[in-house]
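seq:
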Amino acid sequence: MQRIERIIEFLNQQPKDNFLRHALALEYRKLGEEIKARDLFLEILTESPDYIGSYYHLAKCLEKLEEREQAISWYEKGMAATKLAKDDHAYRELQAAYEDLVY
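struct:
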């Protein structure tokens, strides 16, 4: 819990910092607080669709919450974003997770 409190302190100073919001969402996931994590990842990607790292984690969160169709949609959005960013590694990671879910 101490990590979460420190991240929140930093976020109070820089509320739109995507790195901090992403880190907080990951901490929530570690605690099994998938809804809080999902909401943060959605916030990040709504405001910054080029924040590539959050697509995978959002989709995994949605899988855990049994929101399969939403997870598929976010994997697809992430793959499109990684193509634009020319991030082949992230694309392959998203594609593998997508295929595991779909096939």
